Amino acid sequence: MNSLAMHAVKQSGLSESHTLGMAEMGFIGLSEQWLMRRAGDLHWRLIATSMGQQSAQFTCPAGEPLYAAFCATSLRLARPELPRLGAQIVLHAALYRAGPGRLASQVRISVNGEYVGRMVLVSAFVGRSDPSSNRSIVRRMPRVLAMPPDADPSIERISREASKLARLASQQLIAVPDDCGANVLPCPSIDFNAAGLLYFPSFSAICDRALFEVERAVQAVGSRHVVYLGNTEPGEAIRVRFRHQSNKVDAVLQGEDERLLALMRVRFVR
Predict the structure, then answer these.
(1) For a FRET experiment, which of 8, 52, 86, 182 has its CA 20 to 30 Å from that of 209?
(2) What is the pLDDT of residue 128?
(3) What is the CATH number of domain 168-270?
(4) Would 1-151 and 168-270 be classified into the same CATH topology?
């Protein structure tokens, strides 16, 4: 059995540049799904680099597979009108410590040299206690522990508030009515990742599908904050309940047995 190792790193970061085309743009502005996938990949690559690894494949001291699963993501777009077809987008990500057992990355988004917004992603290492069940996700320590710099107060606050929301999740359930929402059945070939888990951008997509099914409105997202509380099995429907106030939506995602999967707050741009 391998022992736990510490791997301290200096702050550096990763950057990537893309020309905005059909793959990167959505029906209204920048594709949030594309952005989340790219930000997630940068986050995992940063963790691997901080551990001295070439690839983002993680294991516990016993050699069992681990996943850097997201506890929370926070997207804020200060200028959502800037991304347009043909423009150049740059994503720059840096990794930090964000509390015990948590790592956070901040991805700064710029288009044609102008700041557009940022995304913060907070993760913890998890594994399956039952290899055949996504309901058996538990926290586990990796074989190598990354030691990036401490997060600044704004990133630390996102991690801290996500932890608080997770503890008070039942109160959020009460605040969101049961009569406003829809059921969505995720498609394994679209919504699940290579680890067999519901992919973190799919939580946002499922919320948007439910919201559109009920309201038939398309609005640009100005910000989206998600707290991830669990995962689901292929073939299991997800109940999305939401409360819509002005340009904001609070949403709760639940599995078929009413267990909590995610809490979400979305602000739309008028």
Answers:
(1) 86
(2) 93
(3) 3.10.129.10
(4) yes
Instruction: Parse the chain into domains and list their residue ranges.
Output: 1-151, 168-270
Calculate the dihedral angle through the C-alpha atoms of 206, 219, 181, 229, rounding to the nearest 10 degrees.
40
Pair 173, 260: CB distance under 8 Å: yes
Q: Would the pLDDT of 4 be above 50?
A: no
CA 100 to chain CA mean position, Å: 19
Q: Which residue has the tokens 């503890």?
A: 167
How confident is the model over 11-56, as pLDDT tens digits? 569 999 999 999 999 999 999 999 999 999 999 999 999 999 989 9
- Kindly give the pairing relationship between strand 88-97 and strand 14-19: antiparallel
| Residue 165 identity (one-letter amino acid) | L
Query: Which residues, at least 6 apart from 228, have a Cβ–Cβ distance to it below 8 Å?
Result: 69, 70, 71, 72, 73, 200, 203, 261, 262
Position 149 pLDDT exceeds 50? yes
213, amino acid identity: E
Phi, psi angle pair for 244, to nearest 5°: -105, 120
Q: Which two tokens stand for residue 106?
A: 């901040």
Q: pLDDT digits over 77-127, tens only?
A: 999 999 999 999 999 999 999 988 999 999 999 999 999 999 999 999 999
State the Cα–Cα distance between residues 237 and 196, nearest whole angstrom: 16
DSSP secondary structure letter of residue 41: H
Residues 6+ apart with CB under 8 A from 259: 135, 230
Pick the CATH number of 1-151 from 3.10.129.10, 3.40.50.620, 3.40.390.10, 3.40.50.2300: 3.10.129.10
Residues 6+ apart with CB under 8 A from 214: 180, 181, 182, 242
